[in-house]
Every structure is written in structure tokens, then in C-alpha cells.
Amino acid sequence: MRIISGKYKGRRINPPKNLPVRPTTDMSKESLFNILNNYFNFSELRVLDLFAGTGNISYEFASRGSGPITSVDGDYGCVTFIKKTAKEFDFDITAIKSDVFKFLEKSKATFDIIFADPPYGMEQKDFERIVSLVFENELLEEDGMMIIEHSKHTPISHMANFSFLKNYGGSVFSFFELENDTEEDVTDEEDEFDS
């Protein structure tokens, strides 16, 4: 796993092999940040990384100058690794061991970007619940964006505040925004590589 851009571009991060994770591939990650680059100046963005796993996405934001970043995962090993890596790189990341749904129910903070990468095998209703909790609890800033990474077999484009999606092989990034005044016709766009 490597950081693809920013201050620590090219730096490799080697998480323990026993963590229960499926990290976002470098190709998908690069494409995601190319999209976000059109919407945001990464400096000082407040980011929430749900189902953070190895911290892969959190480090990418931190390397670009974002922070504070909150990384939430239910696995003790993942949270321990994120804390260790954040200290090593002096990243503005707070790692929290928590059930993601409980965190979303209780959080009073707001964020510019919320990224969620749940297990692909999670039930459809739980993917939908992530979207519902974020918007019901007003966790996203007015000009913010939520991105959910999921399988192409788990459609969530019917949910309120859906904006657009991008396909990368078997993986999909669905983007949600508070205001969706402009329709972007990219829902069927398929990039030429598989993740």
C-alpha cells in the first residue's frame, strides 16, 4: 500500500497481514481523488473515514493537507495500526474504535467529506442506513460530499441526496451531496481497468 499524492507521495505503508480488510486499490483511489480534486481544496478539510480499515484513505487525505480526520473502525487491530501510522507521519488523524452505526447515531461533529468503505457483503439495508444516518443527523457540511464504496451488486442510487456514481470494474463509488441541482450523466460510466 502506498500514498499516491501529496507531501508523502510514494511512501509505502505496510499494515499487518492479519487485519480484516479489503483496501481500496491504488487505481481506484487515484481515480477517486482525481474526482474530488475538481470539487475541493484538500487543505484543512474535515474528513470522516468510516470502516477505515488500514487507514488507506485517511492517509491519502492527510498527505494532501486535510485535517482533522476521524477514522472509525470496529476492529482493535485496525485502530491500533492507524494510531501508530498517524503518529509516525504526524498526521492529524484521530482513530476511534466503534461500531460505525453507533458512531453516526451519537456524533455531533460535521464534516466536509465523509467516506465509507463497508464490507461488500454487508446487507443492502445497512448501506442505506449509512446514508440515512448521515443526512438525518446533519453530519455533512452544506458544501460537503459523502462517498460510499460498494459492489456493483448493491445499488444505492435511489437514496435521497444521491448525486452521481463512478464504476471501476466490480467496485462503485456513489457520491452524495446536500444539494443536487445539476444532474450529471455519469451513472453508467465504466473506467477501463478493474480494481
Task: Walk me through what this model shows.
This protein is α/β, with parallel strands linked by helices and 195 residues long. It has one domain: Vaccinia Virus protein VP39 (Rossmann fold). The chain is 28% helix and 23% strand. It contains 5 helices and 7 strands, in the order αβαβαβαβαβββ. It has helices spanning 26-37, 56-63, 76-89, 100-106, 124-136, and strands at 47-50, 69-73, 93-97, 111-116, 140-151, 162-168, 171-176. The chain has a 7-stranded mixed sheet with strand order 3-2-1-4-5-7-6, sandwiched between helices. Helix 2 (56-63) links the parallel strand 1 and strand 2 (69-73). The protein starts with 25 loop residues before the first helix and ends in a 19-residue tail after the last strand. Keywords: Methyltransferase, Transferase. Its EC number is 2.1.1.171. Residues 1-21 are annotated as: Disordered. Pfam families: Cons_hypoth95. This is 16S rRNA (Guanine(966)-N(2))-methyltransferase RsmD.
